[in-house]
């Protein structure tokens, strides 16, 4: 089911499957769609929510306390139906709760809340994980929003660039030929340490992963207009940039966690960036999308 919330600036559409944001339309002066449309030719998603892992596992499996479990790329939460536990004109709260089916993949009792709220021209998204198990819960969580780029048919990808809030390291982590994350950094060529021009071949070698980014926000900007999308991701320890060659979209992905590294253990407790949550405790994190 598709739910909508709106204010004078923006209208959001969110699908109950995966609690996935599928549309952000700016209402004035003309309607502009900022979210990627999910075209199967390039990428059939819009903004999946990633839980209880981010990225992918070696052989699609992990080990926990001597047992082996399968897990799809980016976890299973993106593919489940959520229930709506609260809705107003400008806010909606989705909830996913563990059941026998989820425990076949992930042997924990939990609740996952995903909250969307509109304030002026900003979308605030909050994740809340509650551990209902009797043991420590190990997890990762993250966002994967994709944005139209270019916005208009008269533009090209080369009309756009990414701007970081602060000067970033000249090192970035990339996927290896095996599809997993390299343990060695690669060079990251930013103009003045803050600007990344967009080109059709930028993502030919896959994702860029920044570990412990100095910036708290990244913006997709146009060289010729004042349109921009700004993603604020305070305290997320990883930021991934991803797209497909010649595809008209780009993803900014703030994560608590990361894809398995070449040579890493199958033990989920030893995954880089894995989070630990004690029984009866709650973890919260949030990010926001500002449209101009």
Q: How would you spell out the order of helices and strands?
A: EEEEEEEEEHEEEEEEEEEEEEEEEE
Question: First CA to last CA: what distance?
Answer: 28 Å
Strand content: 35-45%
The CATH topology is Beta-galactosidase, Chain A, domain 5
Number of helices: 1
Which structural class is indicated by helix and strand composition? mainly beta
Q: What CATH architecture do you see?
A: Distorted Sandwich
Number of strands: 25
User: Mind summarizing the main beta sheet?
Assistant: 9 strands, antiparallel
Enumerate the strands of the largest sheet in spatial order, edge to edge or round the barrel: 8-9-10-11-25-21-20-15-18
Radius of gyration: 19 Å
Kindly state the percentage of residues in helix: under 10%
Shape: globular
What do the pLDDT scores average to? 94
Instruction: Write down the domain tally.
Output: 1
Task: Give a written overview of the molecule.
This protein has 292 residues and is mainly beta. The strands form 5 sheets. Strands 8-9-10-11-25-21-20-15-18 form a 9-stranded antiparallel β-sheet, with no helix packed on it. The protein is 2% helix and 43% strand. A hairpin with a 5-residue loop joins strand 3 (20-26) and strand 4 (32-33). It has one domain (2-291): Beta-galactosidase, Chain A, domain 5, CATH 2.70.98.10. The mean pLDDT is 94. The protein has one helix at 100-105; strands spanning 2-6, 10-15, 20-26, 32-33, 49-50, 61-64, 67-70, 83-87, 91-97, 110-119, 122-131, 137-139, 141-143, 146-148, 160-164, 171-174, 186-187, 195-197, 208-211, 217-222, 228-232, 238-242, 249-256, 275-277, 282-291.
